Amino acid sequence: MNLARRACLRNHSVTSRSSISRLGLAWRSLSRSSSVSQEGVKPADEIKDVNELDRLLELVRDRSDPALRSVMPMRSPQLWVESLRESRSSPASTPDLSGATKSTSTLPPRTMSHSYSEFILPFASDPAVLEQYTNARGGIRTGKLMEDLDSLAGGVAYKHLMEPGVSRLTGSLSERGFYVVTASVDRLDMLTTLTPSNVKDLRLSGQVIYTGKSSMEVVVKWEALSQDQTEETIMLGRFTMVCLDAFTNRPKAVNPLVALTDDEKTLYKMGEGPCLFYASGPVVVSEGPMPPVAFKNRRQARGKQSLENSPPTSEEAARLHELYLKYATDKPCSDGIEPVPMGDTLLENTMQMYPQQRNVQNKVFGGYLMRLAYELGYSNASVFTRGVLRFLSLDEITFKHPVPIGSVLRLKSRIAHTIPTASSSVHVIVEASVINDQTGEEKKTNEFRFTWGSPTRGFNRTVVPKTYKEAMWWLEGSRALKIGTEIRGIRELA
């Protein structure tokens, strides 16, 4: 895994209210939607997971071997021209597929402390490192930290699959017989603010807390390290990594994870245990502490609740109709908020993918895509709100297909939802696709969802959908903003 320590201006037109009326017929059909809530996991239970997760991760770290904490399998350096030469000159051979169907029961088990990994970014003690991560306003480039987090998650996954102390992925991909990819990223919530006036060293750490047949749940976090030895958790997040066979590109068995202590068993259950929430809404627990909501089951429930799979709720349909009534007439808005058509917020970037950003399987490194998407999304959000924003959360990332080296990548960002009040925030969707330069065919590869906020001021613009698809994006953004806002509010009261 590559662990390197490594804007656009446009005018938005005012909404034509007659154009918004095109949504009228489509939105009326939403009134037939089910009244059952499909909005999923409650924020109060998300934050209980966050607090408990933070505590348990510290206990596992204490049991890890200090000498191996900074050891992670890295990609052996090889010139790109050598990789090309090998791929072009190597004769076709019959691959050994004996390991492709190997059961997890035949692989040696791993403990949670086995995969624990960390590295330090010495921002306070090394100005040269800080300079690499400093943005134009003196703050920290969050996109670069996300790039490092994806590298860390990959290193943790490879460390789980290999013997202790292995620091290099030796041999070719065909000789190893497997590779690891990022399948998705669950919520990454900023629990506190990174400020240029209070620079501290950062520790980025991660470990495997759950394994399926071919998947690994990797939890990562940022911690600020003070000179008085105190530690403060800044961010927690979860990556789902999948092991694939090098020859068939199909899922390959991973080493099973064993939980040795009650704390580790609790962590494991957070990845495997029964989920309290289903597509039909939350199950109410009347007494006792709320058990952890399973990460895997939470994702499955969210998939069922997605507007791509289920219609909006009656409450959501009513909100859309209210929006339609407010902006579909020719009456001026009395609240002083400027409506902006969602289509006018489109901001995109197209670029060639070069081998310097490749990963183990010679595809584009996922962390690099995360950084590109973050920076485009931030540019869009700041242009729309016309001000400086603070990163609040990464709401979801899905990796559908790999991005080949040499391909043409197109990133499209749009403002999906806004709250232009005192607690102002903006939700941005970034879609990545690969363009075939021979046929012109375009294939979607990734989708990223981010939220930024303005901590000191509101803004006087709001995004308005004009088509049914845009209305679904608007609702998805509303769901994400609602969860994030309540999580941060509960955290502040804790």
UniProtKB/TrEMBL annotation:
GO molecular function, one term: fatty acyl-CoA hydrolase activity
Chain residue ranges for the region called Disordered: 82-109
Family that this chain belongs to: Belongs to the acyl coenzyme A hydrolase family.
GO annotation, biological process: acyl-CoA metabolic process
Protein name: HotDog ACOT-type domain-containing protein
Domain of life per record: Eukaryota
Keyword entries, A-Z: Hydrolase, Repeat, Transit peptide
PANTHER family in alphabetical order: ACYL-COA THIOESTERASE, ACYL-COENZYME A THIOESTERASE 9, MITOCHONDRIAL
Gene3D superfamilies assigned to the protein according to its UniProt record, in alphabetical order: Hotdog Thioesterase
Polar residues composition bias: residue spans: 89-109
HotDog ACOT-type domain ranges (all copies): 115-247, 343-458
GO cellular component: mitochondrion
